[in-house]
Amino acid sequence: MVEHSLDRLIRIISRLFVRSLFSGIPLACLFAIQCNISTLDCRQEDPSCSNSSLMSLIVILYRPNAVYWGDSNDNGLYLSDLDSIESGTSRLLFTGPVSPNILFISADRKWAWFTGGIENTAYRADLPAGPATVLDNGYSDIDGIFFAESTGILYISDSGSSTIYSATADWTSHTMLGAPVGPRGLFIDSRDSKLYLADNTQIIRSELDFSGYTPIVATAGDPRDLEMDSDRSLIFWTDQTGGAIRKAGTDGSGDTQIASGLNSPFGIALDTANQWVYYCETGTNSIGRIKYDGSSQQMIFSGISCWDLEIARSF
Questions:
Q1: Burial 4-18 (b: 16+ CB within 10 A, else e)
Q2: φ and ψ at residue 56, rounded to 5 degrees
Q3: C-alpha span between 223 and 193 (Å, rounded)
Q4: CB 164 within 8 Å of CB 209
Q5: pLDDT score, position 59
Q6: What do you get for the CA distance between the two ends of the chain, in Å?
Q7: Which residue(s) pair with 42 in the sheet?
Q8: To 10 degrees, the CA torsion angle through 84, 226, 296, 273?
Q9: More reliable by pLDDT, 200 or 1
Q10: CATH number of 64-313
Q11: pLDDT value at residue 171
Q12: Can you tell me the mean pLDDT for 260-274?
């Protein structure tokens, strides 16, 4: 998940003031409902690279981060703000046609992509209230979804057919990238333009077109979901049958188990600011968290039938 820092906000505001003084951009743009600030230098993944107003950006950045998950008990998409998650409170965003299982939330919180039913159908829902629409129902068993904010490309891994696809966000155009053994969770590192994949019993790294396929963790257990902390050059994954959560460097070094004795862990999400790993423990119908170093393990929610988690800005 792309996390927009206060430093980035300050940088954007500074650019606006400088441009307003030296190139005629009105200071009113700081408060306009619609103001084109796309002329400012920025990275494509920055929300300021669109025609949205700076005030809208500030509202997004002011919001705390939240954990999102789907609950198959009622097919609901839920969230809980990280700054109050220990209270055990959550909010229902919408109820879908199926349970949001494998899940991804866009950085601007505009869309949620998820699988449903027997995981052969890909959906996209408008946030926060839906509705969910079918993108494609021709899959076998979707185990990974990732939307690369910097390129606008969606990636899907289908373990049932041993294929990886890339597509536009609305799925109007899609391409098969390759045929790994058993593709599951995946992560796109936009900084280095690399694709990381939990594949059968390995963690692999490749180019975005799936060329240069290289195993970096040869014995990863039964890896399911995969997440990355790019700032710390760390990858994390769940070992479902091993009942563990593991981490390693992005080069595969330092493979370490940070949680053990879990009952069928599946999805994970990273609170990189506070170095928490949140996880769905499907065997106990619960959501827990643990620090990067394996300390302070806690159960946060119980009675929740979830498979996957995402961390994004709250509503």
A1: beeebbebbeebbee
A2: -65, -40
A3: 22
A4: no
A5: 53
A6: 16
A7: none
A8: -50
A9: 200
A10: 2.120.10.30
A11: 84
A12: 98
Q: Name the nearest CA neighbour of 261 among 288, 226, 236, 235.
A: 288
Enclosing H/E stretch for 99 = none
- 84/102 Cα distance (integer angstroms): 25
3-class state of residue 183 by DSSP: strand
C-alpha dihedral sign at 305, 308, 309, 312: negative
Q: How far, in Å, CA of 301 to CA of 61, rounded?
A: 26
| CB distance 82 to 66 below 8 Å | yes
Task: Provide the residue ranges of all domains of the chain, joining segments of one domain with +.
Answer: 6-60, 64-313
Provide the token pair at 3: 């996390």
Contact 312, 107 (CB under 8 A): yes
The per-residue pLDDT for range 28-48, each reduced to its tens digit, is 444 443 344 333 344 444 444
pLDDT score of 40: 37
Going by C-alpha positions, the residue among 288, 303, 157, 277 that lies closest to residue 224 is 157
